[in-house]
């Protein structure tokens, strides 16, 4: 085996150019060759299907895709539903829920994650044990989280029932059964799951901050609050970016959590756009409307994420 | 040595080729009957076929209601990989038939005389363009009341014959401190109950025009408003914790005696059977008050796909076995439904099953056998789901009055058509 290897290695040196150029050409092409399959897969299965979805949204596809373009009826229907607030159309419910859920989920996760990370960063005893405890929920699937919280929040099974048995009979917490509050239970479960992970991200960021800077600030007489407010949090800016992107995509693709936790909520009041998309495409055989809603979701995400990424990443070269 | 090997290989491949040219003695079956009772029921068919020498290739996709299974089926069909048969519901069969992927069972159907034995209302879904494309397995009906007999005796109730009787009975239960009505607050359960309410309020003719023909005049009529008002009355008898509950948990409340009655299709009987309860002594089955004589049905079907010729014999055997009297009886006794043909002897069925079979026969002959809109046998899925939305939003208070509900119903159905 080794002899073969050496032979091959020797050949170009002793022999003429063609081999050498072959080899160097191969070397040049190698990264491209290795990347090509994954690049092709991404192009076809991500961007190709995005285009396909856009195309389908302009057809009248029902149960199966149909390829004749028939215009923007699907978008017109969604547009009309966007303003049907009383009684709320399913689409109206979905997008308002997305707003409520997305904002609260991202905001609370960031705030709670940062807070926990700062507390854990105080050189406390048993950190090695506490960290995994907070981090563990992230290892669960949304289905497990959803079912566990469904039981916990169910007034007839979980928290309320237990407290009633302990004697606090006036306690009342039926958000999960209430059409106006059910979306907040999704926020609770979602935050429980993700905030530990965000904490870990912030903790890593905190550990990366140079101790010298902190000492310098302390010598200059900064209070602890000022220290965090003026120095630590601004230094954590890249972590905020990563955490925001992780949370934003988790929020937008939350489908299973809603299904497992609320099975859609009373009268469909816990739907998110992803639930809407699945319902219309696969259950109601209105593939065009489902595709149109998926396209609108993509547009919305793009409108939020792209400017943010642009403003954050542009500063790097300076 | 070498020559021997060559001959052997040639023989081997020749044999393989010969075997390939013969019929494939295998049926590939996609279904979502994965829970205990359902799997046991399906096993009856599996054994029937294995006696005839057909292997059974199971493709179970779990998830009650079959949404996941239908998504899987869509992918299989799109890839050109048709199963021999798939469990399907109502309009799905017609959708696939319109897409031209279903097989043709007419030969078997003629030989077995399905035209006469299968109710005409079911043939609307199993026959497409004059060709048999599906074999119905069973008939479920949804306009049933399931009552705990011990609770009924305690409150001194009798069988309610009219809607007002029913309200009086629920009042009695309420006074006795039992939850009167066990309901799972999921849209399909609410809509399934509403099917019965509409039939009871407006009568068979009204139900057919409104929920099978989708006649707009009927949909926005005062009778429909009254139906919504009646639904609102019923909802006042449920416990505050009903929203989102699964149907079998609601049934369990009746089984345990926590609640008096559940309005549910006859699959609820499977739960009573599993809890070792006997009809007549432990629980009672009545038709929803005011709907006696009519049957609102849904039916499980085995849709038969356009498989290659070498698999057609296995498919025909599957279809024949599915609609054989012995299988229809054995399967439906376990499943809680009634046979999809009206000439099966009812000896093995319990009291509720016997009543169900007699009702089905009478309804078939009297023209009062209607598809359930909530269960996808009244209209295509887009319309049926729009209907479920409206009913559910009415039950949970997003839609506040029956006037508004009727307007919403008409708009939603118009929109979904």
Describe it for me?
Chain A is mainly alpha-helical and 318 residues long. Chain A folds into two domains: 18-57, no CATH class; 88-314, MetI-like (MetI-like fold, Orthogonal Bundle), CATH 1.10.3720.10. Helices cover 73% and strands 0% of the residues of chain A. Chain A has helices at residues 2-14, 17-57, 73-82, 90-120, 127-135, 142-153, 159-165, 182-207, 211-219, 224-235, 237-252, 256-262, 273-283, 287-314. Chain A is flat and about 70 Å long. Chain B is an alpha/beta fold. A five-stranded mixed β-sheet of chain B has the order 2-1-3-13-6, sandwiched between helices. In chain B, strands 14-7-12-15 form a four-stranded mixed β-sheet. Chain B has a four-stranded mixed β-sheet with strand order 9-10-8-11. The chains are: A mainly alpha (318), B alpha/beta (417). The interface between A and B is medium-sized, with 28 and 35 residues. Chain A: Belongs to the binding-protein-dependent transport system permease family. Chain A: It is found in: Cell membrane. Chain A: Keywords: Cell membrane, Membrane, Transmembrane, Transmembrane helix, Transport.
Summarize the structure.
The complex is a heterodimer of chains A (about 325) and B (about 425). Chain A has about 325 residues and is mostly helical. In chain A, about 75% of the residues lie in helices and about 0% in strands.
Fold topology:
The complex is a heterodimer of chains A (318) and B (417).
Chain A: H1 2-14, H2 17-57, H3 73-82, H4 90-120, H5 127-135, H6 142-153, H7 159-165, H8 182-207, H9 211-219, H10 224-235, H11 237-252, H12 256-262, H13 273-283, H14 287-314
Chain B: H1 2-21, E1 26-31, H2 36-51, E2 55-60, H3 67-78, E3 85-89, H4 91-98, H5 106-112, H6 114-117, H7 120-126, E4 127-128, E5 131-132, E6 134-136, E7 138-141, E8 144-148, H8 149-154, H9 163-175, E9 179-182, H10 187-212, H11 216-219, H12 222-235, H13 247-256, E10 259-263, H14 268-274, E11 283-287, E12 295-298, E13 300-304, H15 312-322, H16 325-335, E14 338-339, H17 351-366, E15 369-371, H18 381-395, H19 402-416
Parallel strand pairs in B: 1-2, 1-3, 9-10, 12-15
Antiparallel strand pairs in B: 3-13, 4-5, 6-13, 7-12, 7-14, 8-10, 8-11
């Amino acid at each position: 085996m080794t002899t073969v290897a050496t032979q091959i290695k020797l050949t170009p040196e002793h022999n003429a150019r063609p081999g050498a150029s072959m080899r160097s050409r191969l070397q040049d092409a190698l990264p491209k060759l290795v990347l090509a399959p994954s690049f092709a897969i991404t192009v076809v299965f991500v961007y190709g299907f995005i285009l396909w979805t856009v195309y389908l949204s302009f057809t009248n596809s029902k149960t199966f895709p149909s390829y004749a373009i028939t215009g923007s009826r699907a978008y017109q229907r969604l547009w009309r539903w966007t303003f049907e607030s009383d009684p709320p159309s399913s689409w109206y419910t979905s997008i308002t829920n997305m707003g409520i859920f997305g904002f609260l989920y991202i905001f609370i996760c960031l705030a709670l994650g940062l807070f926990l990370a700062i507390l854990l960063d105080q050189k406390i005893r048993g950190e090695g044990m506490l960290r995994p405890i907070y981090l563990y929920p992230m290892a669960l699937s949304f289905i497990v989280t959803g079912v566990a919280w469904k039981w916990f929040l169910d007034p007839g099974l979980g928290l309320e029932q237990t407290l009633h048995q302990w004697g606090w009979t006036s306690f009342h917490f039926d958000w999960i059964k209430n059409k106006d509050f059910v979306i907040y239970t999704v926020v609770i479960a979602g935050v429980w799951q993700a905030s530990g992970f965000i904490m870990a991200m912030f903790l890593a960021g905190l550990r990366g901050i140079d101790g010298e800077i902190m000492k310098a600030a302390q010598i200059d007489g900064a209070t602890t609050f000022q220290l965090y407010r003026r120095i630590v949090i601004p230094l954590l800016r890249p972590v905020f970016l990563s955490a925001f992107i992780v949370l934003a995509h988790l929020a937008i693709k939350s489908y299973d959590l809603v299904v497992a936790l609320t099975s859609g909520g009373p009268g469909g009041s816990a739907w998110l756009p992803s639930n809407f998309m699945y319902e219309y495409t696969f259950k109601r055989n209105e593939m065009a409307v489902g595709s149109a809603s998926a396209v609108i979701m993509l547009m919305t995400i793009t409108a939020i994420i792209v400017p943010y990424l642009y403003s954050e990443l542009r500063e790097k070269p300076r | 040595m070498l020559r021997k090997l060559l001959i052997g290989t040639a023989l081997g491949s020749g044999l393989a080729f010969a075997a390939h040219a013969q019929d494939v003695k295998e049926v590939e079956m996609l279904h979502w009957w994965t829970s205990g009772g359902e799997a046991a029921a399906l096993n009856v068919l599996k054994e029937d076929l294995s006696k005839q020498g057909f292997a059974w290739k199971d493709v179970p996709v779990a998830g009650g209601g079959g949404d996941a299974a239908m998504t899987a089926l869509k992918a299989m069909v799109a890839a050109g990989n048709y199963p021999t048969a798939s469990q399907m519901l109502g309009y799905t069969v017609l959708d696939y038939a319109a897409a031209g992927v279903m097989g043709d069972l007419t030969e078997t159907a003629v030989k077995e005389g399905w035209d006469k034995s299968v109710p005409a209302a079911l043939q609307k879904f199993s026959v497409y363009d004059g060709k048999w494309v599906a074999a119905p397995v069973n008939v479920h009906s949804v306009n049933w009341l399931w009552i705990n007999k011990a609770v009924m005796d305690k409150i001194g109730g009798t069988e309610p014959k009219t809607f007002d009787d029913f309200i009086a009975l629920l009042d009695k239960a309420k006074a006795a401190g039992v939850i009167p009505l066990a309901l799972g607050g999921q849209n399909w359960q609410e809509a399934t109950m509403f099917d019965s309410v509409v039939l009871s309020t407006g009568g068979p003719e009204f139900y057919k025009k409104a929920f099978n023909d989708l006649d707009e005049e009927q949909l926005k009529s005062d009778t429909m408003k009254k139906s919504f008002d009646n639904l609102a009355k019923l909802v006042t008898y449920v416990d505050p914790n009903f929203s989102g509950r699964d149907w079998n948990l609601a049934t369990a409340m009746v089984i345990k005696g926590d609640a008096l009655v559940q309005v549910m299709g006859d699959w609820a009987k499977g739960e009573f059977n599993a809890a070792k309860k006997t009809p007549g002594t432990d629980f009672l089955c009545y038709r929803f008050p005011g709907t006696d004589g009519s049957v609102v049905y849904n039916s499980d079907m085995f849709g038969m796909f356009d498989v290659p010729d070498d698999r057609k014999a296995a498919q025909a055997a599957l279809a024949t076995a599915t609609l054989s009297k012995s299988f229809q009886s054995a399967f439906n006794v376990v499943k809680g439904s009634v046979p999809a043909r009206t000439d099966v002897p009812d000896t093995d069925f319990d009291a509720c099953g016997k009543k169900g079979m007699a009702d089905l026969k009478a309804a078939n002959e009297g023209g009062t056998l209607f598809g359930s809109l909530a269960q996808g046998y009244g209209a295509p899925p887009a319309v049926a789901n729009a209907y479920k939305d409206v009913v559910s939003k009415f039950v949970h208070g997003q839609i506040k009055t029956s006037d508004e509900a009727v307007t919403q119903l008409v708009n939603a159905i118009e929109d979904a058509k």
